[in-house]
Specification:
DNA-binding; globular; homodimer; 5 helices; two-stranded antiparallel sheet; alpha+beta
Chain lengths: 149, 149
DNA sequence: GTGGCTGCAAAGTCTTTGCACGAGT
DNA sequence: ACTCGTGCAAAGACTTTGCAGCCAC
């Protein structure tokens, strides 16, 4: 379902008023594939294997443009670097303090709970756009995945 | 209630196994006073007015130690810098995208809602420590405060 | 007195910027 | 063709580090 064809990706990019270049296709794809909310550096290393001529500056510029145009989003962290998220649907993040992983968490019941709450709880002088949960903790066995029951 | 005397602050610092120094007292106080979750730079400028000899390096080192020892906490951001929070009770943050302010949000009903949810929703191979909300949006009138009704 | 703390400056990391060349429409 | 995007390298912002001297305990 979330796997997109090359043609679809081209459309997404050009629909946002951007030229479709090889670099942009690769950056977009790399981010979609990478589930762990990578840094610019990680995307750079990943793409470089197939395409050694790409530059880190381009990765930064492109990610910034994608964020600006709303194709992707930034992830909040308390580490000193930026991480990106290729999925822009309404979901939450689980932060693992030992492995530094950021894992997606999706739950419809929770989303409903939260939006019901903020429908009655009004905040004045504020135009609310989005509410996300930051779930913090640590993996018990770092070699295995976290699983949501 | 949250206003602490000098003696109380000294106790907090030494109870965490740290030497009580003038710089630490000032850094701790500055952070408690500052409601907007300041950067190291902002704390530096604030303290410098009264005490011009303090160094930025000390601010960074001290904040880092305070975080490590649990006296204060870091705030997650998607900007390129670190911000700190002097209040470590369970509360959420409102992020204003135009003024870059981070405003505290406290609601007992919401805390209960969330903790009830995570009591039944189990995440395996994960030791959950903390759940916080990131409320994003923007001030309608940037010159006035956001008010929670 | 001793070990931890501070100030200073230098180094390090991450990110942005400027510019000439190259590619997409 | 014209404009926008890319690569490179330099600059910038933020943070960490090393070390000599200083201070709390």
């Amino acid at each position: 379902m979330s796997q997109k064809s090359l043609g679809e990706i081209k459309d997404i990019i050009s629909d946002h008023g951007l030229k479709v270049t090889h670099q942009r296709l690769m950056i977009y794809q790399a981010l979609k594939e990478e589930k762990k909310h990578p840094t610019a550096e990680i995307i750079f290393e990943k793409i470089r294997k197939k395409n050694p001529s790409i530059s880190l500056g381009t990765i930064y510029k492109t990610l910034e443009i994608f964020v600006e145009k709303g194709l992707i989003s930034r992830v909040n962290t308390s580490e000193g670097n930026m991480r990106y998220d290729g999925l822009i649907d309404n979901h939450d993040h689980i932060y693992c303090t030992n492995t530094k992983e950021i894992i997606d968490f999706r739950d419809e019941e929770l989303n409903t709970l939260i939006s019901n709450f903020f429908n009655k709880k009004k905040i004045s002088n504020f135009d609310l756009k989005d509410v996300r949960l930051h779930i913090t903790g640590e993996k018990i066995d770092p070699s295995k995945d976290v699983k949501i029951n």
